[in-house]
Design goal:
With 206 residues, the chain is α/β, with parallel strands linked by helices. It has 7 helices and 10 strands. It has a single domain, classed as DHBP synthase (Alpha-Beta Complex). Strands 1-8-2-3-7-4-6-5-9-10 form a 10-stranded mixed beta sheet, with helices on both faces. Strand 2 and strand 3 form a beta hairpin. Helix 1 crosses helix 5. The longest helix has 12 residues. It is globular. The protein starts with a strand and ends with a helix.
Length: 206
């Protein structure tokens, strides 16, 4: 089911419909500040397992946690150093994924093959409104077809996965811009992927 929403000023009653679906254990597709992502409530174990099933992946596949702010992010990591905190504060919300050592707050199913977790705080009014209304983080993964191509048109997404998710929240066709991924789980930061997020603005790399 396609749900058209104002991407700059999301209508509260439409946000409430999305959150209602999430609270019932649903999987929804949301527009982020990069590509479309499937999402479910991180705190619903059945929904987490269902997200893996809908994406047709196993726990070995890394997923990201979407949070409303850095304070929430800290709950799911084993610590955020002062320099990293300052870097995150400069760029978030924004198109970045930060990889940390995972805390015990992260669902166990996600840690069977790893001890790290990706953290996202997207600059998306829709996602931020959903996070605020839901009151808990979202687990997310990008929407791709069987050829591992990113799906950027909500109509195409609805045709491909609409029967397996509760709704596809439409922001129209969006550009194919991936997030910048930085691994902070070791002693030194590692740039995993340079994407839409400005690496220089982080101030973590010489």
């Amino acid at each position: 089911m396609l749900l058209d929403i104002d991407t700059e000023h999301p209508e509260p009653w439409l946000v409430a419909r999305v959150v209602q679906a999430l609270r019932r254990g649903g999987v929804v597709v949301l527009p982020t500040d990069t590509v479309y992502g499937m999402a479910c409530s991180l705190e619903d174990g059945d929904a987490v397992r269902r997200l893996y099933e809908v994406k047709e992946i196993g726990p070995a596949k890394p997923l990201a946690i979407m949070v409303a702010d850095i304070a929430t992010a800290a709950r799911y990591t084993r610590g955020i150093s002062n320099p990293v905190f300052r870097a995150m504060r400069r760029v978030l919300p924004g198109p970045y994924v930060f990889i940390f050592q995972a805390s015990q707050e992260v669902p166990r199913i996600m840690l069977r093959k790893r001890r790290t977790i990706g953290i996202r705080c997207p600059n998306s009014p829709v996602v931020q409104a959903v996070l605020e209304e839901l009151g808990s983080p979202l687990l997310t993964t990008s929407v791709q077809n069987e050829r591992q191509e990113f799906l950027l048109d909500p109509v195409e997404i609805d045709e491909d996965v609409g029967s397996r998710v509760e709704m596809v929240v439409s922001a129209g066709v969006i550009p194919n811009e991936l997030s910048t991924v930085v691994d902070l789980s070791g002693e030194e930061p590692v740039l995993v992927r340079e994407g839409k997020g400005d690496v220089a603005e982080l101030g973590l790399f010489q």
